[in-house]
């Protein structure tokens, strides 16, 4: 189990990432809409990784569980792409 210091650092990192998302959309003269959306998606992926890894304690799970979840995620993405293709 991680220490309070680790949780505090992860919390601060999450706050900074949320501030980054705010900055993307509130400074349109610096960031275009496409850059803001792409940056927000990247920041969201980092935030999900931090939350799942530390607050849900998934970083201590065996690697086989990680590979299983990545395989499931890949299959969901394939299904989503197939559904999007069939709608067209």
Describe the structure.
With 88 residues, this protein is mainly alpha-helical. The protein has two domains: 1-56; 62-88. The protein has three helices and no strands. It has helices at 4-26, 33-55, 63-87. It is a multi-pass membrane protein.
Question: What is the topology?
Answer:
Layout: H1 4-26, H2 33-55, H3 63-87
Outline of the structure:
By secondary structure, the chain is mainly alpha-helical. Helix content is 81%, strand content 0%. It has two domains: 1-56; 62-88.
Pick out its properties.
single chain, 88 residues, 2 domains, 3 helices, flat
SS-derived structural category: mainly alpha
Counting DSSP E segments of at least 2 residues, the number of strands comes to 0
Uncertain regions: pLDDT < 50 for 5+ in a row?
none
Please report the number of helical segments.
Answer: 3
Helix percentage: over 70%
Major sheet = none
- Overall average pLDDT: 90
Q: Secondary-structure element order, as H and E?
A: HHH
Q: How many domains would you count in the coordinates?
A: 2
> Shape from CA axes?
flat
Distance between the termini: 48 Å
* Share in β-strands: under 5%
Computed CA radius of gyration, to the nearest angstrom: 17 Å
